[in-house]
Model the fold of this input.
Amino acid sequence: MADQSLHGAHAAPEHGGLRGWIDKRFPFSSLWSAHLTEYYAPKNLNFWYYFGSLSIVVLAIQIISGIFLVMNYKPEAALAFGSVEYIMRDVNWGWLIRYIHSTGASAFFIVVYLHMFRGLIYGSYRTPRELIWIFGCLIFLCLMAEAFFGYLLPWGQMSFWGAQVIVNLFSAIPFIGPDLAVWIRGDYVVSDVTLNRFFAFHVIAIPLLLIGLVGSHIIALHQVGSNNPDGIEIKDNKDGRGIPRDGVAFHPYYTVHDLFGLSVFLMIFCAVVFFAPQFGGYFLEHNNFIPANPLKTPPHIAPVWYFTPFYSILRATTSNTVHIWMGVVVLATLFALWRHRGKPMRAVLFAIGGGLLFWSLATVDAKFWGVVSMGGAVIIFFFLPWLDHSPVKSIRYRPTWHRAVYTLFAINFVVLGYFGIQPPSPVAYAVALTCTLLYFGFFFLMPWWSQLGAFKPVPQRLTFKAH
Amino acid sequence: MKSILHRLCLGLLLSLMLQGVASAAAEEQDIPLDNAPYRVNNILALQNGARLFVNYCLGCHSAKYMRYESLRDIGLTDDQIQHNLMFGDAKIGDTMRVAMTAAQAEKWFGVEPPDLSIITKALASHRGSGADYLYTYLRTFYRDDTRPSGWNNLVFPGVGMPNPLWMLQGERAANFQVGPDPADPAVKLKTFVGYTQLTKGAESASEYDSTVADLVAYMQWMAEPDQLLRKRLGVIVLIFLGLFSFITWKLKSEYWKDVT
Done:
């Protein structure tokens, strides 16, 4: 009964000695039992559930390796590039720390994307876990900001031009855009001033936010308990002592379980760190080994792989694409009008809203809509709990074709990422545009398709095969 | 108003630059890169490469993140480094710098020669590794009287650098065939068909290939002097983690066998 023990209702037995001394002054034993030994997690958590604890481990790896990097890094335009090489060559084990940090950045996104996909397929964002999901989305936003700010610090060509491109996106916002971009940079171009403030954000502001949000994410999780691959609440079936029949104590069961997951993860992580730290130019881009040169634009600027799905959506939004969006707005408005044909007040509001949106699509620069699409592609995750109208949580008891939808969504995301890395071409544009429409279709049409099909009966108890 | 002018100028400049790139690409095709032999684990090749590097490259190119003392890692003593590989008044703890200033370089070669500390990492692309690029580049110089330096290069057309190793390789002329592009007959394609040796070099073709391979191996090593240590250590770390995973797997199974 985790929710009660959080408030100390399950008072741990009185301890003597040092532990008793501490317990009188700090709720050590009750915290320990509330969050570990008497926090009950579903016993059927599978492969997909490793990535939550792995995300915390990677966060710790990044913070610790980051501290050591900051000891030797110089956040100054004239020195930054050289100080990274100094770390690689002259600092004892500096190369190891740097590669751990650079590989950790990519690893962070890998585990977080897998963690999010887990939430998607098992409906982990559904009632009562909406807040866990929202905290998670905020963590994802912070993570993107953290990666973006951090990428400027090595002060290579990609660092510089990547930051230049992304900050310039803000200048597409009507009226305030150009001033906003200058305000973010602190200068008319990316410069020493920009480097200093990005450094401050990367090492202080965002990590603090991240840690606070991760704490909130876990507190919210422990308030309601973990979801599971069956998508049923283990708290609905408790024994005489109030312990969920299908739960096991987090410690020791899931601590040893996650320790195994961690050791396998570390094997893969270290294989990259020691044998392929640049990962063929995907984790450390080739161009970034050339010092930043504000006078020489690289022929092809691409963000690091973890941003490319969203970058692809940005690039797919050209002035041609905006015409498609205009068509979509017209259709959506007509549909809304038809749905609300009995309520004239609402219908008028929808017509005005649709008209305004259509008008702004027609008049505002396509670059702005690219930024809106890219931002929207991230922000839309926040609304998932209210977009999904499926009567069951888990993919296991949804119609079989729903699996195809989620598989397609995952493939679609990877394809977007692939074409975000490639230089622009007509084929890449056509593919990215199709994938962008599928991406938004998945979310915007979810209230409709998530209810369709024959749902399977959900069992009363967890499906669990003894190990 | 000023910013609009600014943008216009920038846009004009950019489009001009892009056009330049496009027309150059239409004339000459990218030649495929040759695979550089992997010799980073060959200490004799690295030592020979270091000798070639300080003699033929370090005159104009710096390696300002590389310390002379790091050459101990390829089996050289301080004495050997100081007497054979260091010129001028540099100290053993100094990095490899050049006397030529940026202004002089601009005047003499039109561009400042890039620093070579991590050049093999910077030159990697979808075409091949940075070592492949350098290995091909250093073997594809040819005489071209239309260039200010009298030299041109197949991998880097319009290169500023004359062939630094010409005495070893000898001078060559390149023969091109100009024909229509099969995809677009309006475009004339310049295809490389072979060399004509003009003067004899000190080395035969195969000796020269090996010399360049040594030099490239050195630059590949210099880009990350700890790379061999990294790989050796990686083997130990992975063996440890393999054992650790086995133990944690057994530990997990031991606990979970009671869960029914």
About this structure: The longest strand of chain B covers residues 188-197. Residues 1-26 of chain B have pLDDT under 50 and may be disordered.
